[in-house]
Write a structure and sequence with these properties.
heterodimer; A: alpha/beta; Rossmann fold; 2 domains; 7-stranded mixed beta sheet; globular; B: alpha/beta; 5-stranded parallel beta sheet; two-stranded antiparallel ribbon; 7 strands
Chain lengths: 301, 263
């Protein structure tokens, strides 16, 4: 997804108001952007608090700053700078965190981003984009460029099944038809889940959706999704994010408020480091039960 | 804005503003008066004598919002009825500057260690947009315990932000002790110099020195350490830590007014 991101921004690098700040990351990926943006590509060094405040200052001057780092270094270290300098002022600073969820795998907990959108969506004016597939990145970048508010882009590793056709980008997308429960997937884990689920009999497998834009405020839940949920009566959400502040908390609240609560609900989510051991992204997903196999087992489908 | 009054006339403006500042804090029954009095002179000199239309200012020591409000009042940009709402319900004049309601308040501050990095962003933005004008920032001394300020110092020097001028209001006192007792902050000048930041030290209550220091243009970013007194001009407040917090009683308020009015 990082290359897709770089390619998408490259088109805009000649805009005299475009500015790109990196916290000393992007080696072997962002060089084309660096070349194209010239003096408006800045390596701000390993100093994320300053980098975010600087971006707020640039946005105040009507520049269009993008700020890039490994996700937790970008949303956790300078959280107060995001909160006060960017969000309280509703400045269009675009934050880009690489390595959503457990993507950095055995690099360890310091590099994981399993509470990013929960934290960020608790701030004023913040919007979040979680692409599930590399092809989502370009339309999302276009949306972010037009958005006059703070926004966060959570990048990960594309795991789209090769033989699966994904509909054109939309915040809510039905991907697999099924007669089972209504399943909502967030982020690149959609790839391995869809790989397994598409092989299941259509009458029993879940009706599977992908969601990419947050928060879910007002009438933010797709009408088609709600109709599907009404049919199935059973909601499941899977996300590489802790339960607290996740979609599995946001969505049921809205459904309850609207008097459209499903009969049952199950949530598959990140659970930190249950065993205390570290491994690949797949290792951590499996340890949290964030796998389609576990889903099928728990749902008894 | 700027150059509204000759330097000689500032003395009267300062007296009037100090009285108004005391009145605001007395009527609101709030503290932070000490740090407001330590930087009021420098703010008034900056706004009346130095700041031009295309310039920007960031008050990093947001707890001196009162001094900023009174300075804007002295220029007619805030009215008496605005100041009456200081620290009250349904007000824009909160204890620390609020965002998005007044062009002159570029950034809301209050948490320390934000204003200088923000000012660096403004200065870089001006450079990238080829805009004229300068960026000024006033920090407290205690807030140089915040790591973000040192990040910004490295950045400012490295990016050669020659349009950025930083002033540190060195009143020597912070929330729970002197800056020297709490974190051994000194020698700040040598620390700045070792980061490649030129520094000058001035008496932060000498109006001419303030005007020259704020006004001086250089080929790179520069810092001014302004030695000030917390509670300046009020005998029972000067250099006393409790005036970081304490509200004024009626008797103290009357005495403070008399002292400020005295020639």
């Amino acid at each position: 997804m990082r290359n897709a991101f770089c390619d998408s921004l490259l088109k805009h690098a000649s805009d005299p108001d475009f500015v790109f700040l990196t916290g000393d990351l992007g080696y072997n990926a962002l060089e084309p952007l660096q070349k194209s943006a010239g003096e408006r590509f800045l390596n701000a060094g390993i100093a994320e608090q300053n980098m975010v405040s600087v971006a707020a200052g640039l946005a105040n001057r009507r520049l269009k700053p993008w700020v890039y780092s490994i996700a937790p270094f970008l949303y956790a270290r300078p959280l107060e700078q995001i909160r006060n300098d960017v969000c309280l002022h509703d400045l269009p600073v675009k934050l880009v965190g690489n390595g959503g969820g457990y993507a950095y795998g055995v690099m360890g907990g310091s590099h994981h981003a399993i509470e990013d959108y929960g934290l960020l969506l608790s701030l004023q004016n913040m919007r979040v984009f979680v692409p599930a597939f590399a092809a989502d990145v370009a339309p999302i970048v276009e949306k972010m460029l037009k958005l006059p508010h703070p926004a966060y882009l959570r990048l990960g590793r594309d795991e789209k099944p090769k033989d699966l056709e994904i509909p054109a980008y939309a915040p809510w997308r039905p991907i697999l038809k099924g007669g089972g429960p209504t399943l909502l997937l967030i982020g690149p884990l959609a790839g391995p889940w869809l790989s397994v689920l598409k092989g299941q009999p259509e009458s029993r497998r879940p009706s599977t959706w992908v969601l990419t834009e947050l928060p879910l405020d007002g009438d933010g839940v797709s009408a088609e999704f709600k109709a599907d949920l009404k049919r199935s009566g059973h909601l499941a959400v899977a996300e590489e994010h802790v339960a607290h502040g996740g979609v599995g908390e946001m969505l049921p609240r809205l459904l309850l408020q609207a008097g459209e609560a499903p009969k049952s609900f199950s949530h598959f989510h990140a659970k930190g480091y249950l065993s205390g051991y570290y491994g690949s992204q797949q290792f951590h997903r499996a340890e949290c039960g964030l796998t389609p196999e576990n889903f099928l087992k728990e749902l008894g489908t | 804005m700027g150059r509204v009054h000759p330097l000689e006339a500032l003395d009267q403006i300062i007296r009037k503003s100090k009285k108004r500042l005391l009145q605001m804090h007395f009527e609101a029954g709030v503290g932070h008066i000490g740090g407001n009095l330590s930087c009021l002179d420098s703010l008034l000199v900056l706004y009346h004598r130095v700041l031009q239309k295309e310039d920007l200012f960031v008050l990093s020591k947001g707890h001196s919002a009162g001094a900023l409000y009174v300075t804007l009042w002295s220029l007619g940009l805030l009215k008496d009825e605005d100041l009456k709402l200081f620290h009250k319900e349904h007000t824009k004049l909160s204890g620390h500057p609020a965002p998005g309601w007044m062009e002159e308040i570029t950034f809301a501050t209050g948490s320390l260690g934000h204003g200088f990095p923000l000012a660096a962003g403004l200065a870089l933005g001006k450079k990238l947009k080829r805009e004229s004008g300068r960026v000024f920032c006033l920090t407290s001394d205690g807030e140089w315990e915040e790591g973000s300020n040192w990040e910004a110092l490295i950045f400012t020097v490295h990016q050669k932000l020659e349009n950025l001028t930083l002033m540190v209001d060195w009143n020597g006192l912070q929330g729970f002790g002197s800056t020297q007792e709490v974190a051994g902050l000194g020698p700040l000048k040598e620390k700045f110099l070792s980061f490649g930041m030129p520094v000058e030290e001035i008496d932060g209550h000498d109006l001419k020195a303030l005007e020259e220091a704020w006004g001086r243009k250089a080929r790179g970013p520069r810092a001014i350490i302004a030695h000030t007194n917390k509670g300046r001009g009020v005998s029972f407040m000067e250099n006393r830590m409790e005036w970081h917090y304490q509200p004024l009683t009626e008797a103290q308020y009357r005495q403070a007014l008399q002292e400020v009015e005295a020639p």
